[in-house]
Amino acid sequence: MMLSGCSTWPSDFVKKYKDSQCWRGETFGEMLRERANLYGKRIAVTAGDHEISYLELDHRADQLASGLQQMGIQKGNRVVVQLPNTIEFFEVCFALFRLGAVPVLALPTHRYSEISYFCGFTEAVAYIIPGSGAGFDYASLATKVQEEAASLKHVFVTGEGNGSGFTSLADLYDPSPMVEVQISGEDVALFQLSGGSTGLPKFIPRTHNDYIYSLRMSNEVCQMNVDSVYLAVLPVAHNFPLSSPGVLGTLYAGGRVVLSSGSSPDEAFPLIEKEQVTITAMVPPIALIWLEGVKTRTFDFSSLKVMQVGGAKFSTEMAKRVKPAFGCTLQQVFGMAEGLVNYTRLDDPDHLIHETQGRPMSSFDELRIVDEEDQEVPQGEAGELLTRGPYTIRGYYKAEEHNARSFTADGFYRTGDIVRLSKEGYIIVEGRNKDQINRGGEKIAAEEVENHLLAHPDLLDVSIVSMPDSFLGERSCAFMIVRENRPAPSEIRRFLQDRGLAAYKIPDRIEYIDQFPKTPLGKVSKKMLRQMIVEKMTLKK
Ligand code: J2J
C-alpha cells in the first residue's frame, strides 16, 4: 500500500517494471543489512576524524530505529531531516528506512519559511536538526517551527549534550531490538523536494523500488564498485549527491563515502589526495572554482577517475578544461529529483562529453520532446522534454490540481526543460519554460519569492526573473512596482530574511519599474523583463 496522497504507477507498468527486473523488491533497510554481511568492517563513511564501518552503521541504524520506535515513530510517519554532511545523516536515514518512516530531506540552507511549510504540509511528527557547531542556530529555528506545527511531537538534535533543551539523538540509541516492521519495495522510502516553479514547494515521493533501481543503473553507468571512493561536497540530502550515484549508490556498491563539509579547493583537494577519492560530483560554479584553484595548488589527483558536473548547464568551454586540469573524465549529469537522470558515458568521445548533457541511464526511460501543443517536434529541434519511466514519479504528494498540469494524461512528467537531441541521441539543454531561476544549481521558484514580497506594505506588484551571470549561470532579479514609498534594496532583503526565506532565494538585484511589459494576452511578459535587465547590464559595461 502506497502512502496516502502519493500516486503510484498503473498496474500494467508495475508488472512491466517488475517482470523486467527493474524493481526487485529490495528495500534500503535490507540493503544495509546485506552490505554489512558482505563488507563487515570495511569503512562505509569517513567524515574528518570519524569513520564508520558497514557493520557499525548497520548496528547504529538498528539501535536508533529502536529508540525512535519507542518515541512513537511509526511506519508512514513523516520526519523532516535537516542535517549537514555528517555520519548521523546516514544513521538517521537508515533508521527511518527500517521503521518505514519517511524522511523529508530538507537542505541545510532552508530556514523558517521552508521548514515550517515542510512540517505543516507533510504533518511531520518529528524534525531532526544538527546541534551547535553547524554554523546556524537550528535550535531557535526549531523552537519557532514547533510553536506552529501542530503535528510535530519531537525535535531531535544530533551531537552530544546539545544544551538546546531538545532531546539528544545520541540518547535514543537503544541496543534492545525494535519491533520488526514490514517494508516492501513499493513503499515510499523518502521525500525529495522539487526545485519548484509554483508558490509552494512540492514533495516527491520516491519508493524503495524506484530509488534503488536508479542507484543500480547509476552505478552501472558510473562503474561504481567496492573500490570506489565518493567525495560528497554537495549537501547529501540533495538528489544528485544522494543518488546519482551519490552516497547511496556508493553504499550500494560497497564503496566508501568521504564527507566534506564544504566544496572549496582548500577543503576538497587535500581530501582527494588523502582519501584517494575516485569520483565526486558538483554544480558548475564549484567546477569553475576548482578549475581556478588547481592552478595554484599542487595535490595528487591521480586517484580521481570521474568528475561529475550537473544541476545546471555546464558550458562547453568549461567542460573542455576539466580533463587537462585534473586528468580525470568529466561526466555531465542532467537529472531531476522527480526521476529521470541522463549521463554522458565514461567512454564517450570528447565531443559528446563537452557538448551534451548525456542520455538517459535506463533503456526503460521514455522521452518525448514536444511543442506547445504537445506534438512531437522533428528530430534535432528544440522542445519541452516529457518523460516517463521506472524511476520517474507519477505525481507529487497531495497535489492533485498541480499534478494535472505537471503530468500528461498518460503519465509523462513535464520537466519544463527545453532540450534538443544531438544526432547521436544525446540531450542538449537549451533553456526552460518553467517559472524558475537556476542559480548555479540552486532552484528558485519565482512565484514563491514573489508571494513573500507581495506581503510588503510598500509593494504593489513584483515579478522575478533570471539574469545571466558569468559565475552562477543565472542570478535573480526582482522587478517591483512600489506604492508611495520606495523601500531600499537593503530593506527588501532584510524583510525576506526576517520572513525566514532561505538566503539563496533572496533576489540578487532589485529594479523599480512603473509598469510591467505585457504579453498580447495581458500577462506580465517575463521574457521582456529578462531582455530589459540584460540591456541594462550591457549598457553599464
Ligand atoms: C542543465 N540543467 C540541468 C544540467 C539539472 C542529478 C543531477 C542533477 C539533479 C538536479 C538531480 C542540469 N544542465 N546538467 O536531481 O539526480 C536542471 C533542469 C532540471 C532541474 C532539476 C540529479 N541538471 N538541471 O539538479 O531536482 O532544469 O535535480 O529539470 O534540483 O535542474 O533540479 P533538481
TrEMBL record:
Pathway: Siderophore biosynthesis. Its EC number is 6.2.1.71. Residues 33-397 form the AMP-dependent synthetase/ligase domain. Belongs to the ATP-dependent AMP-binding enzyme family. SUPFAM superfamilies: Acetyl-CoA synthetase-like. GO terms for molecular function: 2,3-dihydroxybenzoate--[aryl-carrier protein] ligase. CDD domains: 23DHB-AMP_lg. Keywords: Ligase. Residues 448-523 form the AMP-binding enzyme C-terminal domain. This is 2,3-dihydroxybenzoate-AMP ligase. GO terms for biological process: siderophore biosynthetic process. It comes from the Bacteria. The keyword Ligase applies. Pfam families: AMP-binding, AMP-binding_C.
